[in-house]
Amino acid sequence: MKPQEIEKEIEKFLLNVQKPGRYVGGEFNSIYKDSSAIQTRIALAFPDIYDLGVPNLGIAIFYDLLNKLPNVWAERVYLPWEDMEKEMRERNIPLYTLESKTPVNQMDILGITIPYESLYTNVLNLLDLSGLSVFAAERSEEDPLVIAGGHSTYNPEPMSAFIDAFVIGEGEEVFPEIVTVYQLWKKQALPKSELLYWLSKVEGVYVPLFYQTTYNGDGTVSAINPVNESFPKRIKKRILPILPPPPDYFVVPSIDVVQNRIAIEIMRGCSRGCRFCQAGFVTRPVRERPAEQILESIDSALSSTGYEEIALLSLSSSDYTQIQTLVDALQNRYGKRKLNISLPSLRIDTVSVNILEKLKGSRFSGFTLAPEAASEKMKKTINKPITEEQLLETAEMIYSHGWQTIKLYFMIGLPGETDEDVLAICDLCLKVIKIGRKYLGKRSQLNIGIATLVPKPHTPFQWWKADEPENIARKQDLLKKGLSTPGIKITWSDPDTTMFEAWCSRGDRRMGAVIHRAWQLGAKFDAWQDHFNKEAWLQAFSENGLDPDFYVHRERSKNEVFPWDHIDIGVTKYTLRKEFENGLEGVLRPDCRTGCYGCGINQAFRLVQPKAGEQKWFCPILNFSAERELTE
Amino acid sequence: MVLSDTQFFRRKGINRMIRCRISYQKTGPLRYISHLDLQKVWIRVLLRAKIPLIYTQGFHPAPKIATAWPLPLGWEGKNELIDLWFDWEDDFDTEDQKKRFIETLNSQSPLGLSINSAEEVPAYSPALTKLIESADYRIKTAGRFLAEDLNNKIHHLLSQTSVERIRREKRYNLRDLIESASVSEETDEGPVIHVRMIAKDSAMGRPDEFADALGLDSEYLSFCRDRFYLSIPEH
To answer: What number is the ipTM of this complex?
Structure first.
């Protein structure tokens, strides 16, 4: 179908679908180019609906970055909601790019961001709606090159049958390199296998076609090896020595989306080492963006978008060394404007309350704190030691200043957890609400979010198992009973969707068949709570002779080969194992800025680190003797 | 003491409050943006254009803008109207100043929003919806109907004194809301219906209701609002 035909076809039914504004493009700051002057056409896809896709920072970064290349046009693609999908399928309208309405299968490169695992079936649906075969091996020479990145791809194996090449790590340098390689390849009219071979030579690119997995008799992985010696045994993630400046332009949707705001990273990486946190390990080393650059970006983004809300993102805002400078400057510059600034992931202390007090806009509603654990034992297990006094003092300050709502996040299903540890959450929350009542009486509100641990790849807890659904349900009941008091509201994650998240994130190459079958059986939009189709997934497992419990409820032996072991995040497996054992023994590991414990990151990137120059990583610079000591 | 708006703005240091009436087009992708979302689109255009907007009083201050009758989703508008209030240091009456103002707004607008003109109107004149007396609509028929048939149907409908309709469970007389209607033959799009609908009792006659009363299948129709007719306010 030609773009004009698509445009004409969709006009016939757009008024019958919800929010037709999702499907028409034309937003301010969206980029239109003359396609006749373009060498490479790229579709950047977020595999969920427009409303969730537009605020995605990854897409925003690459849209801005790739469109600065004069011979490249990057356009956006989101998944249609079910009503639109039905119309499109009935009328044989292929998935198209929002800007030019060109069918996705006519693009040169399709780049899909997969930030979380519950999008896997959506990725298949996206390929299928584009008129492409979902299997990489079945796509033709003319079909676009399909690449994927994002946090979930730190374990690329479950999706390896569907994606031509994965970007492991930070994509700001790799993506343009892939485009260059693609352009060189295209000029020479060579087969696609040649393109994939070339791409496998780009640092940070993983081409699953060139790797194979072997299994032990018990079903565990025995090895993942390249098919021959010309490919690296392990694929090291890519990082940038210095964070590049934030995007200059953000697409401003004309309809309401989940987050109508500018998102600016202030820091990448985290030195805290909470043992459940995948982001904390895979995004090392810590790199800060200079406060001056952040302020400039905010200024230009505000005037180029007209937004009145800004989110300053990082994994641990309080650790950003210039936080006070930044906050004071923001208050000076925007204090009089009707601007809402959010600064998530602040440490639990009174300094944070002061910071938030300075930033609060007119629509400021409440404080969110994430102690994650309540008992002393569990705090040590997860390596997040916030004392009870610290938390209560913070709560006292919040309520006494007249703010009515506090939100607390906790996690259950942790290694070595007993019912006592769970009940400690109740005790702590009751103490908090008591403080609220002291100051505000019945107006005080405490919202509690209870998550369940999913032992993620590349974290110390990767050796641990996910708690059984019956156990989770029982622990949730303990909390519900213990906290049924006025002013307290609890939300929790559904045990079934937790299991789903666990088997998708921990899967090996064989999971691909399960994902494919589940999708065939109708699984899609799994991240939407009412859409998760447990029966389809269980049927897909059993038809493929696989046991979901094998993936999630099994504690791993020390030497087990993980399906993601060929992906090198820089932090060594030795470090992760040591941290797991420390967790079980209740040994704390202080913030590594107070003393390097040799996690491996500065060794893995010792050639990149000097390029950081003035922008230190908070990591010691290694000489070669230190390197030998750190080798496993 | 309750302050009047003038007193309030003077206290806030606003010297010259301008109420500006803008005529704009809503076409292309913007047709699929609802009336409510369009207001947000407008506010962002104005913020990007750095127009010194005047904010409403109250706990959640919002820029002071006022729209005319909503345009239903999917319809084109060629001369839609919106009133804005802002604090302009400069004069706002030379053609050159207006031209620059319009250019600035257009450069900050998404695809499908384009500004035709801007005029200062008395700050305390009645609201747009009070001033609007009628509006011209065009109904394109995609060549599905013959001009003669349409003419006959229109003639028949207009000859009646009462055309009872029910909309949102309310009974009303559609005939009272139709000022005139005619058919023209366009080169490649087939016959086009022109209808002038009347605004009355805080409601605006709807051309889709009119088309439905003619017995036309809405699937083949597309609607466009060409212009509003405003009464001259009394001073």
So the answer is: 0.90
